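Changelog-adjacent note: as of this version, every example in the card shows the full chain rather than a window. The one below runs 225 residues end to end.
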Amino acid sequence: MIFQAEWFSYAAFITAWPVLAALLAVCAKSAFKAFSAHRSAVNLVILIVTTAWLLNATPDDGQLAGMSYHLLAMNLAALMIGVPAAFWLGALLLFPYVWLFGGDWQVYPINALALLLPPLITNILFHRLVNLLPANLFIFIFVNGFIGSAASILFTGLVLVAVLDWAAAFPSDVLWSTALPVFILIAWAEAFLSGITTAIFVALRPQWINTFDDNRYLKPTNQIW
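Full-length structure tokens:
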């Protein structure tokens, strides 16, 4: 979803910029460490996220004219290179994306916070949940890859709709009854594509899923499946 400047007040702009800058600063050390250590995975994440965001749909007319929908792949990105690096990468990729698809740079920080934080927070919660469960490959793939990706889309959709409702960008009834259910449909695609990709990488290229702990899941005493 690309926000437009006319939907928000000047106070929202000047508040969002320092919040985004502070979060990027907190994540900077871990993010750049991951960029240096996992270059092949980072390059692949750039390709995956860019492709996912380009698969978008924007109604030209009707009640949802101006809304845009696309896959996120941010949960998958966080699984591959970690949350801090995924946040930085998403923030860097969002700027040209907003510019290319007619957004306003003034509203960029609000857009970044609303679009990137929900899936990454979801990833953190699911990662902690998986760590409490038995060390099983199926659990890691299914919970983190499939369910986590679906939940990240649903949570992001909820946040985006809530922000648009707060900004009075669209009528409330249209947002909650028409716009929000679309994210449920997108969640199926996100879950399938991210889940399958996670499964393939864990099986064939585990070095691309850098949150996958070999010592936890591949001990001789563990039952893999």
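Structural remarks: The two ends are 38 Å apart (CA to CA).
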